[in-house]
Design brief:
18% strand, Rossmann fold, 435 residues, 2 domains
Length: 435
């Protein structure tokens, strides 16, 4: 039976390719959706670009007939635009509210007997649709099963002799089918303290972790997972690294430490670029007080905190050098750049170590946009906690960080690790686990 998908505006703003995701079915866009897209089309942010993409697609589809009657799409589906202001009242909803006018169209088609499915990223609107007896769902395309999210490592029980041979030969062949850059913790079947840790270079070949990950800048890894993370962060061949972990696990600190190590000490990169979407990528920093640098100072304070920890230096008399001055020197020398994500689109970024913090607040489309900025010799790091999301239209399964970690796990240029244990402090660990 052909389904009728009524799409909310936020679905199209989240993924402008959503119009192509419902093959051989009917897509209905209420006129209120077109009106809302019109409000976004002049914006210079990601939402504006998505709105313009959808509007251009609709304009192209007009060549296939009248949108009000329904036009054929390339995927054999039908697209219609329906007016529904008067229909909201029939459902007992206030027609002055755009969401209600959208729901009014879905309710009207539902009463006509069509197999209606209302699709929205807005939980509250889905609840209202359900109250009207309409089947409602989130936009499922680009979602992953977060309960089975790739962790980046496995534990494998093996005979003790196998571990000894691994240490001796510095290579091992496993029967397991591994992903590129996946880590394996080999554990003696009879003695758990007898273990080894390696990294996959292909589907079944394991090599030891390099010694370089034992000490980076002025920090040492406090767990096996942190050492795995540093192994990926320090390898230029792994051009994209995703790190998932709750607060206090050291995601950002490890990334910045590796960036300073490779850029300042080894000069493998020309610059460190750090950014974070505390405000969703579509918005600007204009409303914050002060000039651009002052705005960024407020926005990037968590980054400054990590830099302060890493760049601190004690003199012979026990005094600490002014860390703020050191950070300013790096910025003035163009070695360190703190930038808003708004200004990254359209750039080509060669030979830079790029860190995108709080990447769980980005959509899959936004993450794709950012990664595609990477030029020759650039390494890109995405860090975040999928369970702490500020974007109201994303969750642990649909955010860009989780999506990339799962989708790119079979590629040799990508490496991923999940950090479980909080290392910030005993208090932070208790809060993360118990509250």
């Amino acid at each position: 039976m052909i389904k009728t998908f009524v799409l909310d505006t936020n679905v199209l703003l989240h993924s402008p390719q959503a119009l192509d995701a419902f093959e051989e079915n009917t897509i209905v866009l209420p006129m209120a959706v077109i009106e809302e897209l019109d409000k976004f089309k002049t914006s210079n942010d990601e939402l504006g670009r998505n709105a313009r993409y959808v509007i251009r697609t609709l304009d192209r589809l007009r060549q296939n007939g009248k949108l009000g009657d329904g036009v054929q799409m390339d995927n054999k589906g039908i697209l219609k635009i329906l007016v529904g202001k008067h229909l909201a009242g029939d459902a007992g909803l206030d027609p002055a509210v755009a969401d209600n006018r959208i729901l009014g169209v879905a309710y009207h088609l539902h009463l006509k007997g069509e197999n209606v499915i209302f699709v929205s990223k807005d939980i509250n609107v889905r609840v209202k649709a359900d109250a009207l007896g309409i089947v409602a769902q989130d936009y499922e395309n680009q979602k992953i099963n977060v309960d089975e999210l790739y962790t980046g490592f496995i534990e494998l029980p093996v005979p003790g002799e196998f571990i000894d041979e691994f240490y001796k030969n510095e290579v091992a062949e496993l029967e397991s089918d591994l992903y590129p850059n996946e880590f394996v913790i080999l554990k003696d079947e009879l003695n758990e303290k007898h273990s080894a840790m390696g990294r996959a270079i292909d589907h079944n070949t394991l090599v030891p972790i390099a010694q370089r990950s034992e000490h980076v800048w002025n920090i040492r890894p406090r767990s096996k997972e942190q050492r795995m993370a540093l192994e990926l962060l320090l390898d230029p061949a792994v051009e994209l690294v995703t790190i998932v972990g709750q607060a206090g696990t050291g995601k950002t600190l490890l990334a910045i430490a590796a960036a300073l190590e490779l850029t300042l000490k080894h000069e493998q990169y020309d610059r460190v670029l750090v950014t974070r979407p505390i405000i969703p990528m579509g918005k600007d920093i204009g409303y914050l007080p002060g000039a651009k640098d002052q705005k960024l100072a407020h926005w990037m304070q968590p980054i400054f905190d990590n830099l302060s920890y890493l760049l601190r230096e004690e003199g012979e008399d026990g005094s600490t050098r002014n860390v703020t001055k050191r950070v300013d020197e790096l910025i003035q020398k163009n070695v360190l750049e703190l930038e808003a994500l708004t200004y990254i689109r359209g750039r080509s970024i060669p030979r830079q170590y790029v860190i995108v913090d709080e990447a769980q607040n980005l959509t899959p489309h936004e993450v794709k946009t950012i990664i595609s900025r990477a030029g020759e010799g650039t390494k890109m790091i995405l860090t975040g906690d999928p369970y702490q999301i500020d974007n109201p239209y994303l969750d642990a399964a649909s955010n860009g960080l989780s999506y990339v970690a799962e989708r790119l796990k079979e590629h040799t240029v990508h490496g991923h690790i999940t950090l479980h244990k909080s290392e910030r402090s005993a208090l932070a660990a208790v809060a993360a686990m118990e509250l």
